[in-house]
Every structure is written in structure tokens, then in C-alpha cells.
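In this section we walk through a basic example: taking a raw amino acid sequence and producing a predicted 3D structure, encoded as C-alpha cells. The instruction is simple. Fold the sequence below.
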Amino acid sequence: MEAFFAMGKYAAYVWPAYGASLVGLGLAIGLTLAAYARAKSRLAALESGK
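The resulting C-alpha cell sequence is shown next.
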């Protein structure tokens, strides 16, 4: 198991790449959910006539 996490001499490149990917996907999901909430709120306001 230790060999898996060490990944030979490439661990210094692999783990930051995994981290950057995880952060990017998290941001994409967060921004998408925020845009969805804004659109849902705007639709509710338009339907109520405000």
C-alpha cells in the first residue's frame, strides 16, 4: 500500500494533479448549484409577478 501512495518518483506530480482536479470539480459543482439556485429564485419571482 505504501508503494501505491509513494508512486515512485512521480508522487510529487500525481498527488497535486489529483488535488487540483478535486478542487476544480468542487468549484464546478459549487458554481453550478449556485447558478441553479439563482435561476430557481428568479423563476419563482417571475411566476409570482414581482
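Looking at the output, two observations stand out. Residues 11-48 form the longest helix (38 residues). The CA atoms of residues 41 and 47 lie 10 Å apart. In the next section we compare this with other chains.
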